Amino acid sequence: MGHQVIIFDFSLIRGLWETRVKKNKERQRKEKERLEKSSLEKIKQEWNFILECRKKGIPQSKYLKNGFVQTDEKILDTYGKNPQLQKRHALSDEANKERNKFIFQLSGEQWTEFPDSLKEQIYLKEWHVYNTLIQTIPAYIALFQDLRVLELSKNQINHLPVEIGCLKNLKVLNVSFNNLKSVPPELGDCENLEKLDLSGNMEITELPFEV
């Protein structure tokens, strides 16, 4: 009984294998392109949704959940069909704008003194000045009779002017982390003062009896 010899054509097998590998790579490439296009489309969709929400005055908290955009058309419908919500949001924005008219804000080490234009805004109710190199509070602060809040933390202020006692409506005075060495007794004339923060002024050892 003779032996049968099986002969394999390895070049044919290699050709089939290479063809399969190429097809597999092609499928992977197309799938990658599909996913990329899908992601781009999703990003575009989310961005358009955000723009539409902003146009309708929808607050960010309504369309963001855990930092991700929720493209829920009901959000747009709710705000689109409920003018009361839109009106409420518009009123809130208007109220904020109105409030900001009475607030003065200044920060940055480029400032070494208060701007001259400030003396013309005696209607202000709040000053928020921080992280500047300003050393002196101008005497014309006495003109700001409506001033309620004076936040002057982290500057280089070295003294409080006696005119500060003219601020009869002042409720909050924060001059923490400056270079104050003392507090003028005139501060005791601020009869409505509810909060005083002098922390971080290391050379102040005591307050005047009037305060």
UniProtKB/TrEMBL annotation:
<dbReference type="InterPro" id="IPR050216">
    <property type="entry name" value="LRR_domain-containing"/>
</dbReference>
<dbReference type="GO" id="GO:0005737">
    <property type="term" value="C:cytoplasm"/>
</dbReference>
<keyword id="KW-0677">Repeat</keyword>
<dbReference type="InterPro" id="IPR032675">
    <property type="entry name" value="LRR_dom_sf"/>
</dbReference>
<protein>
    <submittedName>
        <fullName>LRRC2 protein</fullName>
    </submittedName>
</protein>
<dbReference type="Pfam" id="PF13855">
    <property type="entry name" value="LRR_8"/>
</dbReference>
<dbReference type="InterPro" id="IPR001611">
    <property type="entry name" value="Leu-rich_rpt"/>
</dbReference>
<dbReference type="InterPro" id="IPR003591">
    <property type="entry name" value="Leu-rich_rpt_typical-subtyp"/>
</dbReference>
<keyword id="KW-0433">Leucine-rich repeat</keyword>
